[in-house]
Design goal:
alpha+beta, 2 domains, eight-stranded mixed sheet, 6 helices, 12 strands, 24% helix
Length: 213
């Protein structure tokens, strides 16, 4: 994965971490920094954790949304903003484009995300998020979220990275607390007790699936 990412990276590519601030500081900070470090190593970018922590510590208080970018020189930019409350649920539709499970870019969070940006810009009325499948029709992820499913037997599961998806920070936290990795299909979703999508910034949002073929 590393060689492909280093040789084929677009010009001015940035690594991204989007974080949420709680009463006790940035949530999942260590997991965010661990993912940022892995991404920097994969791309061949310098990574100075103490410098990144210092940049985050200087972020303005009172903002719920924090976006940090890291460039090829190892420099960081931190932007902050307000995060509106989550709605009670999302309606999610299956996107027609299939992801390639072998695409190494799916496993690093960077500004190389035109497919996701274009898809979000083209959300139909009444649809809050897309769900992508891969070339084997396995469930992968949303444009800005991972997916989490409570199966008929009560287990909470999420797709494995081998299906083709971002190793989300919320996903990693839930796995560390008992969520299992399992290949999922639309048939599994149709029989699920609950479906949530989410990320480290927004947390979990209950979803209902729009009708699909």
């Amino acid at each position: 994965m590393e060689s492909a990412l280093r040789t084929d990276r677009p010009k001015d590519l940035l690594l991204i971490e989007t974080m949420g601030r709680g009463a006790d500081g940035i949530r999942y900070l260590d997991l965010h920094l661990a993912r940022l470090k892995r991404g920097a190593e994969a791309l061949g970018y310098p990574f100075d954790e103490s410098q990144v922590r210092s940049a985050l510590a200087d972020a303005a208080e009172g903002h719920e949304r924090i976006r940090l970018t890291l460039n090829e020189a190892g420099n960081t930019v931190v932007e902050t903003g307000h995060l509106p409350p989550n709605p009670p649920h999302w309606t999610v539709a299956v996107h027609s484009i299939r992801l390639n499970s072998d695409d190494p870019w799916l496993q690093v969070k960077t500004t190389n995300r035109a497919l996701y940006n274009d898809a979000r810009a083209d959300l139909p009325n009444g649809v809050d998020e897309w769900l992508f499948l891969n070339e084997r029709d396995e469930v992968c992820e949303g444009t800005i979220t991972n997916i989490f499913v409570v199966l008929e037997d009560g287990r909470r599961v999420t797709p494995p990275l081998t299906s083709g998806l971002l190793p989300g920070v919320l996903r990693q936290s839930l796995i560390q607390n008992g969520c299992e990795e399992q290949v999922l299909t639309l048939s599994d979703l149709s029989k699920a007790r609950e479906i949530h999508m989410g990320n480290a910034l927004r947390g979990l949002i209950r979803v209902q699936l729009a009708p699909f073929a």
